[in-house]
Amino acid sequence: MDDATGTKGASGRLSGPTEDERLFSLPLPSARPSPTPDTWRVLRILGEFVEGFDTLADLPPGVTIFGSARTSPEDPFYAAATETARLLARAGFAVITGGGPGIMEAANRGARAGEGASIGLNIELPFEQGTNPFVDTAINFRYFFVRKTMFVKYSVGFIVFPGGYGTLDEMFEALTLIQTGKIKHFPLVLFGRTYWSGLQAWLRETVLREKKMDPKDLEIFTLTDDPAEAVAAVTRARESLMAIAEKTAQARNGHGLW
Known about the structure:
Blueprint: H1 19-24, H2 38-56, E1 62-66, H3 76-90, E2 94-97, H4 103-113, E3 118-123, E4 137-141, H5 144-153, E5 155-160, H6 165-179, E6 188-191, H7 193-208, E7 221-224, H8 227-252
Parallel strand pairs: 1-2, 1-5, 2-3, 3-4, 5-6, 6-7
Helix pairs in contact: 3-4, 3-8
């Protein structure tokens, strides 16, 4: 098996680099030209954007749920994520996850139990991460940044359960987009007060104290242990966005300008 192909071996690990790894690799001056130069790779990236936009365009307003892939079904957070997603589905939201195991599986399970849209946006990794069986609409991405765009574009808010580097990456990217005004009326709910309280304290007692952030930046996110409270936060955001969209539409039609 040719390592350069990036195909999966019997162990479930990719036998070569992922597309993200190839993209970010520095070419050596003495190396032969790549068979897929970056200028042509743009077309593959474009194709991923087109597939994502085309597949997800007709979704109702969504909520993305993040959390650890290592969370077992016996973990209390698994049950909490399932219930949160069930309530979201019953409230008319599409539930979007990374499509893998753990919290992602729990959320897709809850979406299906609530008879809502259950979406899984999976990613090519050096190790196998199959799509969980509760996903109804699945898209497999090669590039993290394309996948991240889909999470934000088709969501009115994020609910973040305990997780590691991947979860923190998505959380801080959303915080940055909110802080810089790239997305508005976008709630970020951190589920699990005990788990997240240490991070909140560090931001307040270290980052804020050393004047590396504004006090209002601590108001961007909400901590909760209650699925209903998490759903209420994103429901309010959906209502605000719908009111803004209606007002904008009236203005374009020449009504409500004054």
